[in-house]
Amino acid sequence: MLSLTLKELSLALREGSISPIELCRKCLNRIKKTQHLNAYITVTEELALKQAQEAETRLLRGAPKGPLDGIPFAVKDNFCTENIKTTCASRMLKDYVPPYNATVVQKLLDQGAVLMGKTNMDEFAMGSGSTDSAFGPVRNPWSYSASYTEQTGAAPDSDWVVSGGSSGGSAAAVASLTSYLALGSDTGGSTRNPAALCGIVALKPTYGLLSRHGLIPLVNSMDVPGILTRTARDAAIVLDILQGQDMRDSTTVPAPSSPTELPEDFDVKNICIGIPKEYHAPGLSDETLAQWSRVADMFERAGARVEQVSLPHTQYSIVCYHVLCQAEVASNMARFDGLEYGHRSKVDASTEAMYATTRHEGFNDVVRRRILCGNYFLLKQNYQNYFVKAQKVRRLITDDFKRVFSSGIDVLLTPSTLTDATRYHDFIQEDNRTRSAQEDVFTQPVNMAGLPAVSVPTALSRLGLPIGLQLIGPALQDKKLLSVAHWIEQRVGFPSIRDFEDSSERRNEIGVTKTKQTSAV
User: Fold this and answer.
1) Among 15, 309, 355, 446, which is most exposed with the fewest C-beta within 10 angstroms?
2) pLDDT tens track for 252-278
3) Is the bond preceding 211 in cis, omega lying within 30 degrees of 0?
């Protein structure tokens, strides 16, 4: 039951073979059994059961609200949820309760979807491992899979791997079967990175296609709500519900007209796949490169044209991204001053002392460092040399993509991450800035250009951990991108999460500590 797709589950709920209350209880039990993953900050058990009861009443009357009626979902903890804590995984907002729902959350609730809880993340979405949370790091569910423990002989409770970030909690929630879909935010790859490392699908929509109203901002010009699901078809169903203009977000655009369902047998003979030569980045693992080549060969054998292309300004994109990111962070974080909401220091010697101490106590080192750098870049004497120059480079990066897509290329195929998931103890040896620069190398140019991208799992590495590839398309071609992703899914033979479900239950019966003989996901 827990490993069904959205379409299968929706049909089962309408036919009455599964009840929303039974489904909700199974997911809640699963959340309790996988607590060691630390995927959730807040579990909304009482609300979820109430919403499931309401969904059951509607389904019994034969009047479902939509295709997601009665289906459990999770939300990254930087989306506002009415009367439910929204912390951004920070001490600054640890007790903040918004009085309204983010538009994308409200759209899911309007469809009758059942909110299971708010998921863990890097503080204020600044990170690429979900290790910099005030509530502790998120563990990748594949750390407990038979594929990983048998290949490495690892003891998962000490050798666990990171889930990716910053939407690691949302990815872990979907991968560990506690939720059928999850919302994340994507500023430089924050949904695609964890999806690749957790073996699920993530869509970063075209900028403006989904409303940002109620998403606590990191970088307004790059933030988009992201969709994390088990399959590309599931992502298409959710996209249909969430896309479109919102009067509360002036950057939204009308949804393009496109078929609701993805084609069962997408014909790739008429498309051209571009392989950016600049994406052969230092640190790219042999296994990821092999998967990249394998899928490119699959396209070629199926009749698609595969061409090498050039995105010459890619080499400057990570530096450009960090200048723009930190400048906007400095501006956005200014609202957290201890006066109107959030944490307030008890130091009251003066207003300035209260400001300074509040921000020191409320923000972690990563956030404080980005604020400091951002304010430096925005100083009068530095503004032209850093911020304006970075904006010019951003335009060049955007023009690179436009030129490639106008030359006849339909879709770009790239890696999502350099390698499979890293062991936590290895990951934290480097600082957040260095890790983000390494992990965002393939994903952040897309955000600067405002284009759609999807990460799709393709294989398990030698260590038994997922490897994902990324597809990038022209603006508003999100559905076409998902159709290509679905085509890949049908052919790569990535092991289904259900393959691990039975052994997962055994692990929980035996206990978390006896991990060498067990398996989870």
Assistant:
1) 15
2) 999 998 777 888 889 999 999 999 999
3) no
